[in-house]
């Protein structure tokens, strides 16, 4: 199914909450799939600045408005010894929504009913030991089955990582790698998370 057919199907099912944008951002993997050490996963491409991004996470868009966003993610990867050439970057939901993830009441529904199975199939090209790096708690809550834990429990090493493949819908190891800096600064540049950073590095 091509992008246009995908979006039309989503619009038919979920209505005006799906934007009629028929060219969706592509996965970003500049180092080639043979060099991939992690799947860097975002929520969706929805934003208030552009509906014509060539790649996920606004890579190669040339738009300065995304500079700080990309810088934060680049630093996040650097904290665990990785760069963009060593990850396969993709969104769980690939379509543009009317609302950004945090304000989108149907995001989890669309992810569950439509996109998870597609992403799972796409990632089958990679060894199942390659972990999925979750950039948002929204991803965690929609993918993890069974009991959920607070981010702080992982960051303070009271819950083990990776989250086992049998406990999530992608059937791959998952690692929380949040960028949220609101109530608690979960970006890995925070000195408080040195032990968590080091634990992640041992997985590579």
Give the helix/strand class: alpha/beta
Q: Categorize the overall geometry.
A: globular
Mean pLDDT: 96
**CATH topology-level fold name:** Uracil-DNA Glycosylase, subunit E
Low-confidence stretches: none
How many domains would you count in the coordinates?
1
* SSE ordering: HEHEHEHHEH
Ends distance: 35 Å
Keywords:
6 helices, four-stranded parallel beta sheet, 4 strands, 204 residues, Uracil-DNA Glycosylase, subunit E
Structure write-up:
The protein has 204 residues and is α/β, with parallel strands linked by helices. It has a single domain (13-202), classed as 3-Layer(aba) Sandwich (Uracil-DNA Glycosylase, subunit E), CATH 3.40.470. The protein has six helices and four strands, in the order αβαβαβααβα. Strands 2-1-3-4 form a four-stranded parallel sheet. The longest helix is centred in the middle third of the chain and has 16 residues, at 107-122. The radius of gyration is 16 Å and the shape is globular. The termini are far apart. The model has no long low-confidence stretch (mean pLDDT 96).
